[in-house]
Write a structure and sequence with these properties.
The chain is an alpha/beta fold and 329 residues long. Helices cover 38% and strands 18% of the residues. Strand 1, helix 1 (20-38) and strand 2 (43-47) form a beta-alpha-beta unit. The longest helix has 19 residues, at 20-38. It binds zinc ion.
Length: 329
């Protein structure tokens, strides 16, 4: 089995974005140390709108110039160590800005389809090119910000032009409708990969694009009670390293505490306890791939320990791979 460990490399998007040092650089250093220890590669979906914002405001604010320095240096380090850096688009950076005292996130336009067709094309092209410039390697895989998959006809031509042919956004039965965060993967094929052309949720055997969905898990309310209670009882073990606040999603917490829910298989926080059992399930089923999502900002002592143990225990029965390995076949 091939395992993709993927991390969305980004700040928080709520009322407080948190600092680059604690949300991104420090936790990523910890992840890199684990990867190095085991001799494996990781995949980072880099929030490239953020990189453009760093570039823009570094000219005006010394604090941003410093932030840019530590983030860009880390990206060079990731590149030198051979990890993948792929395209992650959060278009609300177009409307967000630096106040002199931190990032002011404006998420009124959180999804790509809230922008005009030409604007979408411009966003994709400029976000793609800053990663290419920094890493010397053009991204070939995409993950939509907040799982908000754009209507594919609005992005398809631009992706083809840029050579982006893999999407890794979908997770089986995923669904959310909370303010501007809207996605519905209930019609996604029940498979661990498929080709598509017009719609990532519809298989097309001669499609240009490959969907490598994030693995999906069905979780009971008990799992979330455990998550919240343990988090309260042992803060130093379970609190996330990131120092920001997520976008408000008022309905989600009550829903997961009272009924079964379908979630993306994650290595963040308490979710990392799912890695081993979910791997075993997939190995037994003879799946070809498992895709795990994570965020540096949401790592905790607990999750890093679980990830380390997970890799130790499975590395003889799987390969940890990068999206770019698909091109070197
Ligand atoms: Zn994201």
């Amino acid at each position: 089995m091939k395992v993709y460990l993927t991390f969305d490399y980004e700040l928080f998007f709520g009322v407080n974005s948190g600092t680059a040092a604690q949300c991104i650089v420090e936790p990523t250093d910890r992840l890199l140390a684990i990867a190095e220890k085991h001799g494996i590669f990781l995949n980072f979906f880099v929030d490239s709108g953020y990189l453009l914002a760093l570039d823009k405001y570094a000219k005006r604010y010394p604090s941003v110039a410093y932030e840019k320095k530590i983030v860009f240096n880390q990206l060079k380090q990731l590149k030198d160590a051979g990890h993948d850096m792929q395209l992650h688009i959060h278009p609300h950076w177009e409307d967000s800005f630096y106040t002199g005292n931190g990032w002011k996130m404006n998420t009124d336009r959180y999804r790509l389809d809230q922008f005009s067709d030409e604007y979408i094309q411009q966003i994709i092209t400029s976000y793609h090119s800053i990663i290419t410039e920094l890493t010397g390697k053009a991204p070939m895989a995409f993950r939509a910000g907040g799982w908000c998959m754009p209507p594919w006809n609005k992005v398809s031509d631009t992706f083809k032009k840029l050579g982006v042919w893999v999407d890794s956004t979908v997770y089986e039965k995923g669904f959310l409708n909370e303010g501007n965060i809207q996605f519905d993967f209930s019609k996604a094929p029940q498979a661990d990969q498929w080709l598509f052309e017009r719609d990532p949720l519809q298989e097309d055997p001669i499609g240009y694009f490959l969907e490598l969905p994030i693995s999906s898990v069905r979780l009971s309310p008990l799992f979330f009670w455990n998550l919240y209670v343990r988090g309260r009882l042992n803060r130093s073990l379970h609190s996330s390293m990131g120092d920001g606040v997520p976008m408000a999603q008022p309905g989600v917490r009550n829903k997961v505490l009272t009924s079964y829910s379908q979630q993306a298989l994650s290595c963040d926080g308490y979710y990392a306890s799912l890695l081993k059992p979910e791997f075993q399930k997939r190995l037994k089923r003879q799946d070809d791939t498992m895709v795990v999502i994570g965020h540096p900002k949401a790592q905790s002592k607990f999750s890093l320990q679980m990830l380390d143990e997970f890799i130790s225990s499975v590395k003889d029965s799987c390969t940890f791979v990068r999206y770019s390995d698909l091109q070197q076949g």
